[in-house]
What we know:
Helix content is 42%, strand content 16%. By secondary structure, the protein is of the alpha/beta class.
Amino acid sequence: MDYAKTLGEALGAVKEEGRYRVFTDIVRHRGSFPRATYHMPSGERDIIVWCSNDYLGMGQHPDVLAAMHQAIDQVGAGSGGTRNISGTTHYHVELEREIADLHQKESSLLFTSGYSANDATLSTLARIFGDVVTISDEMNHASMIEGIKRGGAPKRVWRHNDLAHLESLLEDLDPDQPKIVAFESVYSMDGDIAPIGEICDLAQRYGALTYLDEVHAVGLYGPRGGGIAERDGVLDKVDIIEGTLAKGFGVMGGYIAGSSTLIDVVRSYAPGFIFSTSLSPVLVAGVLAAVRHLKTSNAERERHQERAATLRKMMTAAGLPVMMCESHIVPVMVGDPVVCKQVSDDLLQNHNIYVQPINYPTVPRGSERLRFTPCPLHTDEMMRDLVAALDQVWTQRNIRRAA
Length: 403
């Protein structure tokens, strides 16, 4: 076999479809984010970042940075092992207590990422429950899909947020069949929100466990940052909550929260957890500070929601095809992968604005878009500059505007 040729053809196919991705080499500016330095072969340039998932800017918060500095001075850089072999520090223990409390669950478990939390947990539960059927929302993240697939158990896909379709799938299953209903709270590409309480009520009626991915909501919603389930007052209805420490909390890592027995089973059986070096205590210390701060401060959440609403209003006034939603996500539809990449390149090269094109397989073909994530640190002036640049690029490239 000509290995090099096959590899080249695979890359060529991605490039031909217009979805080949190029890393953007940036350095964030401490204390002045969303400003950053863009490193190019030809030199450096200061830019404004509009696509960070550090939604609240907690990666820049003084409390978080101070906690990380203190931790590295006290314990050094790494954890030194897996959680079972010297990698469980007191920082990990404290953070798991804080997360369990945040979601009003008995226990929680840290992972190195939200992806690994979903993958490890869903695949492990499928193996433990044997003939379990997982019913998955069609818009679920790739990590959930991969975890369900790796578990090897049967699955059903329900139409996005369609309660009637979910109930019909539950009705068709044997009442004694073990079932898991897996879904997200905030769907990050469209920005829509699931009716968590109604989904949980259906699941309970038909004897199913509920698995809720809150990665785009923890820290951002609820009086203490517990996500949409906390905001809606339905934390007690959800069996398993999965979240991230890299978005609303601004650092790195993932977790699950649930009953102490369920957490102990995943801890004891999931290879993705057992054989992974634990998060650096320096990172955990930063997250711990972020979680504790956001449990008592609503200022960041309120400013974040206002910034998203303001940007959406300004874009709409400019006739840009903004996809309307109730969350903090501000997607602008382009509908073509090549044009989407061209717009992103235009903004970066000509206007010092960085927003990543979102193409297949992240979104379905024909729905390519730019996904803006305004944070509390984006100013009105930055927004005006952004909208003016978009207006200019839309005109230059003759892209369809809002109807």
